[in-house]
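One thing: can you check what follows?
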Amino acid sequence: MLKWSGIGVAANRVLEGTEAHGRAARPDEISIDFAAVPGVISGYVALARARLAQGNAEGAFESLRKAGRIAQNPHIGNRWKARVEAWRARLHVARGDLKAADRWAQEREFGTEDEFVYSPESELEHTTLARLLIARGRPGEALRVLERLLEAAEAGGRGRTVIEVLVLKALALQEKNHEPEALAALRRALTLAEAEGHVRTFADEGAPMLDLLRRVLKARGREPPGIEGEVPVEYVGKLLEALGAPVMAPSTVHSRGTGA
């Protein structure tokens, strides 16, 4: 199992202390170092994602419940509550509980044509909304959301978000049976992600991503040379391995133009 990073020493220390906080009768009874809140909530979210990747959905939601209890403290801004709720909705989508995710979207009153104004919470919410729309079989609406997100992320230099949005764009385009465009988006995501070694960004997408990765490798020999046509084969192999797929030995991966 691939290790998860992002829960630092300070976050771990506070996470241990929150067990006592969780027994408080009301959110306003929780005493916490507010400077540590980002690390605490991010730590619980990372733990939830790790547990879901391990197939422990109950543990994942329990981690978010603890994060939500901290976020409900009236002395903490609403943005933390919004983040936890968005992550909970994302887990619902991942598990296929779309009705629960629909309720979240309805409560937030999202519209696919809404103007996107950047904030970390808004970006998380809108990527979650795009995931829900794809899962609901509405890829066209998802693409409208994703195009605005991509434009804003590129303008703001938020590389991690650019990669995530390109991954979702590839999935939405494939859902629309626009395979060439889907593979182009995925190739760009792979090129950007290889240097930083992103794995879960792709592996968390499950079977649809597995299919796309196989297709991008199959199409590799047919693409013209160039930045958009290049596929980091070894990196794709690591992603396939993370998705539980058998990986071809390096000697069986042919260079462009060498034949079958």
User: Anything to note?
Assistant: The radius of gyration is 20 Å. The chain is about 65% helix and 0% strand.
